[in-house]
Amino acid sequence: MNWAPALPLLAFTFVMLVLPATRLVNDTFALRGGGYGLDNILRVIDNPVDRQAVAGSLGLGVVQATLASLLGAPAAWLITRMRLGGRAFWLSLMNVASNFAGIGLAFGFVALIGSTGMLTLILGGLFGIEDPFPSTGSFTGMNIVYLYFNVPMFVLLTLPALSVLKDDWQEAAAVCHATRWQFWRHVGVPVLAPFVIAGWLLVFTWTIGVYAVAYAVAASPGSQKLITLQIGATLESSVFGLERAAVLSVLLMLLAAGTTVLYRLSLKRAQRWL
């Protein structure tokens, strides 16, 4: 009876996560002629387009996680030091921005900075500036779009953790004649680093798994090679078998599992300060 309240969630998890994941693993190793082997994986490895997609997703994830950390960590620190009214305002803004992703966000950026976007036309008409912004389907353009929701998400993920750094510690360091630099070097950064790393890992995992935004902002099919876009292209095409999509999906699962393990290790190290 103690498990009764959790049974609906466990059943939902089994149907929506465990069974599909099992099917994907089976399709990854199942051969068309029968039996199991590594042929499907080797075909993906030998395909230069798939290799570009893997490299593109990893590169985008690393850049996004790094930029979100560099921009989001100072913002989260400042929000924790605000009064209640200012903190509530910025938290509301961050919540809206972090959840406004998908087709709507992509359309907004295309309408704003696309080749015929409002801001692009204004800069071209008033100042004669041609192509002031990179294509939304390029690597740089996608980074601009992704930052809109990744930075707020990083702030929301790390904001509770940053409050662990107490003002009393700074006062104690000052009493011991420690400079502000010494406090951050020996206390502040070591305490906050595991939380920032954990946020970096979550943003990385989220970025490599995004499909709707990447599909919508791409200037043309194949303009930017990503794992999720390759999976979608495989499912829409009759040329490739579903084995290719299964292999790429399992790769995403493995990346997510690996980052989750590292995330748990980072939090375990950080919890000693809680």
Automatic annotation (TrEMBL):
One GO CC annotation: plasma membrane
Keyword check for Metal-binding: no
Cross-referenced SUPFAM superfamilies: MetI-like (SSF161098)
Domain of life: Bacteria
Keyword Aminoacyl-tRNA synthetase attached: no
Domain ABC transmembrane type-1: 54-263
Keywords: Cell membrane, Membrane, Transmembrane, Transmembrane helix, Transport
Regions crossing the membrane: 54-79, 100-124, 144-165, 186-214, 245-265
Cellular location(s): Cell membrane
Xref: InterPro entries: MetI-like (IPR000515), MetI-like_sf (IPR035906)
Pfam family, one: BPD_transp_1
Membrane topology, as annotated: Multi-pass membrane protein
GO BP: any one term: transmembrane transport
Family of this protein: Belongs to the binding-protein-dependent transport system permease family. CysTW subfamily.
Protein name in UniProt: ABC transporter permease
Species whose genome carries this gene: Streptosporangium carneum
